Amino acid sequence: MAIATMTTPLPISLFPFLLLIPAICFTICHANINLLCIQSEREALLKFKNHLIDPSNRLSSWVEGGDCCEWIGVFCQNSTGHVHQLHLAAPPLPAPDIYAPPAEWEPYKRSKLRGRINPSLLELKHLSSLDLSNNNFSSIQIPKFFGLLESLTYLNLSRARFQGAIPHNLGNLSKLQYLDLRGNDFKSKSLQWVSGLSSLQYLDLSSADLSEAKSLQWVSGLSSLQYLDLSSADLYKANDWVQVALKLPSLLELHLTDCGLEDDPSSISVNSSKSPLVLDLSWNSLSSVPKWILSLHGLVSIDLGFNSLKGPIPYYFGNFSFLEVLDLSGNYLNSSVPNSLYSLKHLRYLDLSINEIEQDISEILQSLSSCCLGSLESLNMKDNQLSGHLTDQLGQFKNLAYLSLAQNKISGPIPLSIGELSSLKLFDVSENQLSGTFPPSLGQLSNLETLSFGYNLLEGVICWKRDG
Q: How many CA atoms lie within 13 A of 355 on its CB side?
C-alpha cells in the first residue's frame, strides 16, 4: 500500500509581473509570419551557436541562409523583423534518480546547452528577453557583456550552472523588470549594483552565497519590486532585512527560506503602509513568531515551517482575515489549536504537522467546519498528539484534496462519510489506533491517488468503484 507524503506546494503566488509571461507566450504562439530576419542578426546568432555545444541538436534549424525568425527559440518583432526574444531554456526533463544507470542520465544531460557565450549577442540591439535557464554552463561566469544588452526587460539564467562573481555591470540594465539567477553557484561580497535596476519587479537570487552581505540596503531603492526571493542565501549577517524588505512599497512576495535568520533581540517596529501578500520564513532558526508580522494585515500566505517555534500557537493568527495558507509545520508548538484560527473564512491550506499539539480530532474538525467547509483543500496534522475519533463531520469538507493525520493517537472506526470527499487525492491515517472494518464508501473516492492505513487495527477489503 502506498505511503502517503504531503508534498503539495504552497498554492499561492500572486505577483502581477507574471503578466510578462503570457506576453511571451503570445509571441511564441503567434509565429513570425512572412518575416525575413535581418542579415546582421542572423550572422550574430550563427556566431553565438558556433560557440555552443548542443548535444541534442536543438539548434538544428539554425543554418546559413535560413530565416532566423523561423529558428527554434528565436522570436522577431512582427513589424520590423528585429530579433527581440531568445528563449533557449533546456526542456523541463525531470532529473533521474541519483542512483540511476548512465543510460537514464544521458538524455537529461544531452538536453542541455554547454560551451561559451559569444558576445555576438550584442548585435541584437532590440533584444528584450533572454532565457538560458536550465542549461549547463559550468565553469564559466555570467559574461560581463550581458550588462551592455540595454534593451533587456527579461533575463532568466536560473539553474544554468554559472559560477563565480555576478558581474556588477548588470546594474546598467535600467529597463530590466525580471531577473532570475537562482540555483547557480554565485558568491558576492557586494550587491550594490542591484540598486541600478530601477525598473525591476522580480528578483530571485536564491542559493547565491551572500554570507558577506551585512545589509540589504542594496534592495531598498527598488520601488517597483514585487517579488523578492533570497532563499538559501546566507543572510545571517544582514540584521536589517526586516526594516529594508518590508519598506519596499510594491512588494507582494518575500521568500527567505533557509537564510540562517534568528530572533532579533531588539524591538523591531515595522511601519508598512502596504502589506505583502506572501511571507515565507521557513527553515530558519526563529524561536518565536516575530511580533512585527502583526502589522502585515494583508497577508494571504504565511510559512513559518521548520523553525524552532515553541509554546502555544499565537492567537493573533486569527487576525489575518485574508489568510489562505498557514504553514507552521516542523516546530515545537504545543497545547491546542486556538479558537481564533477558526475565524479564517478563506483558509485553503493548513499545515500544523510535526508539532506537539494535544487535542481531540473531532473538536478540530467541528471548529474547522464553522469557518472553512467550502474553502479547505489541504489539512496536514500528522505527527502530533491528536486523540479521539473521526466523526461524520469529516464528510462535509467537499473540496478537501489532501488529508494527513498520520502518527497520532486517533482511535475508533473510519466514518462512512469519508466517501463523500469526492475531491480527495491523498488520505493518510497510518500509525494511529484506528479499528473496525474499512467502510465500503472508500471505494467511491474516484480521485484518490495515495492511501495509507498502515499500523492500525483495521480489517477487511476495499472494493473500488471505477467508471466502466
A: 30
Q: Give the pLDDT confidence of 159-194 residue by residue, as tens digits.
A: 999 999 999 999 999 999 999 999 999 988 789 999
324-383 pLDDT, tens digit per residue, is 999 999 999 999 999 999 999 999 999 999 999 999 999 999 999 999 999 999 999 999
pLDDT tens digits for range 49-100:
999 999 999 999 999 988 999 999 999 998 899 999 999 999 988 888 888 8
Q: Which of 376, 392, 368 is nearest to 441 (CA)?
A: 392
Whole-number Å distance between alpha carbons of 367 and 72:
55
Sign of CA dihedral 225, 231, 233, 235: positive
Contact 370, 397 (CB under 8 A): no
Give the bridge partners for 391, in sequence order.
Answer: none
Cell of 180: 532570475
Distance CA(181)–CA(158), nearest Å, equals: 5
Distance CA 318, CA 300 (A): 12
Residue 389: name the closest of 356, 355, 415, 419 by CA. Answer: 415
Contact 420, 397 (CB under 8 A): no
Contact 14, 278 (CB under 8 A): yes
* Superfamily grouping for domain 36-130: Ribonuclease Inhibitor (3.80.10.10)
CATH 3.30.70.990 fits 388-467, yes or no: no
